[in-house]
């Protein structure tokens, strides 16, 4: 049973809570001072004793959100991908610490967090709803860890209302537009990269990090195991975010033929350059065998799009184009999910929901000849 008492200190009253014995057998107490009346101190004592009996009491520590968030970042550094960690770190340093860093974790109120979100949404340099939602997820995760560590009794982010980003319609090319793009791209040094993006649905970083030993040309299968992406301080090879991201993707005979031709051309260039060739065994490489940087590939993509006179879409949306075409051609969403490396089929269905209604109508019409042969009964008066 929790124990404590109230005591007068000068002109003020204090609630004194018994915390047990220390390592040397001495009694430990926690003082809560500054109350004007004995009644107020007693009320605080009763509240604390109730929490202790309920098992929700947390001993206050002299800490701030700044010191706690830095400790949390240290904790997650080796538990998340480098790119993910840098996002956590950037959001913490740019938005969490400057706004609520001086508040003690156990004193942080939901209203203060809500005010932070609202200010970032409507301030002089407003953030997008998606960015604020990402910030909320980071802070929610950090405060959840604070609960587990016994620093706070509850996660204040549970009582906060994060923004809901508006669903943006995905831009993609129709089949004719994609065909026109690939025709125009045949003269580009990055043609094979564009072909892989369009024909496999792989992410840009996955294509840039693909090595020849992960491509089985005899079986027509690509094994996706790494991604070459910009992480904040430079480009790095990273493992997929989820286990589903580590996957095998089947490729068509036409893509296999294009890869064989590309590999042969690359081998001739390697022999020609000799020691000047940097052998990274990359499928998509520079003229000297090095990694192609994402921003350079995007520049090349935009040049081809401009030359072909096509509508502008982000290069990443070749992935969306691939998925949309497959769904429209009747490929099962589960197969599309596996090709894209989504962790759950719901991600695929939610992302491409704008395509689904058309598929529903097509499915209904496919049964029309079956039911149209059945005569509709005429009801008798």
Automatic annotation (TrEMBL):
Pfam family for this entry, one: Phage_int_SAM_3
InterPro entries: AP2-like_int_N (IPR028259), CB (IPR044068), DNA_brk_join_enz (IPR011010), Integrase-like_cat_sf (IPR013762), Integrase_catalytic (IPR002104), Integrase_recombinase_N (IPR010998), Integrase_SAM-like_N (IPR004107), Tyrosine_recombinase_XerCD (IPR050090)
Family matches, as SUPFAM superfamilies: DNA breaking-rejoining enzymes
One of the GO BP terms on file: DNA recombination
Record keyword Calcium present: no
Protein name: Site-specific integrase
Source organism, top-level taxon: Bacteria
Signal peptide location: none
Family membership noted in the UniProt record: Belongs to the 'phage' integrase family.
GO molecular function, one term: DNA binding
Keywords annotated in UniProt: DNA integration, DNA recombination, DNA-binding
Species: Alicyclobacillus acidoterrestris (strain ATCC 49025 / DSM 3922 / CIP 106132 / NCIMB 13137 / GD3B)
């Amino acid at each position: 049973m929790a124990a404590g008492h109230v005591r007068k200190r000068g002109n003020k009253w204090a609630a004194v809570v018994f915390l047990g014995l220390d390592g040397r057998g001495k009694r430990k107490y926690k003082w809560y001072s500054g109350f004007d009346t004995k009644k107020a101190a007693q009320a605080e004592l009763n509240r604390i004793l109730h929490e202790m009996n309920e098992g929700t009491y947390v001993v206050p520590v002299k800490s701030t959100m700044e010191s706690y968030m830095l400790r949390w970042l240290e904790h997650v550094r080796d538990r998340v991908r480098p790119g993910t960690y840098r996002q956590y770190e950037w959001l913490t340093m740019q938005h969490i610490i400057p706004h609520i860093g001086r508040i003690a974790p156990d004193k942080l109120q939901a209203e203060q967090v809500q005010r932070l979100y609202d200010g970032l949404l409507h301030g002089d340099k407003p953030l997008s709803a998606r960015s604020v939602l990402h910030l909320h997820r980071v802070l929610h995760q950090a405060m959840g860890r604070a609960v587990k560590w016994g620093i706070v009794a509850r996660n204040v982010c549970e009582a906060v209302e994060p923004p809901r980003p508006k669903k943006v319609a995905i831009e993609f090319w129709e089949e004719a537009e994609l065909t026109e793009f690939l025709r125009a791209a045949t003269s580009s040094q990055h043609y094979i990269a564009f072909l892989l993006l369009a024909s496999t649905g792989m992410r840009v970083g996955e294509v840039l990090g693909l090595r020849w030993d992960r491509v089985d040309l005899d079986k027509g299968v690509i094994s996706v195991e790494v991604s070459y992406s910009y992480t904040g301080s430079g480009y790095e090879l990273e493992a997929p975010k989820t286990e589903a991201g580590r996957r095998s993707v089947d490729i068509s005979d036409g893509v296999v033929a294009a890869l064989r031709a590309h590999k042969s051309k690359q081998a001739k260039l390697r022999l020609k350059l000799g020691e000047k060739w940097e052998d990274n065994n990359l499928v998509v490489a520079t003229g000297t065998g090095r990694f192609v940087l994402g921003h350079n590939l995007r520049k090349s993509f935009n040049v081809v799009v401009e030359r072909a006179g096509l509508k502008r879409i982000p290069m990443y949306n070749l992935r969306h184009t691939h998925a949309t075409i497959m769904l429209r051609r009747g490929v099962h969403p589960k197969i599309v999910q596996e090709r894209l490396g989504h962790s759950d089929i719901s991600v695929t269905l939610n992302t491409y929901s704008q395509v689904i209604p058309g598929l529903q109508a097509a499915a209904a019409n496919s049964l029309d000849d079956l039911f149209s042969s059945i005569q509709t009964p005429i009801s008798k008066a």
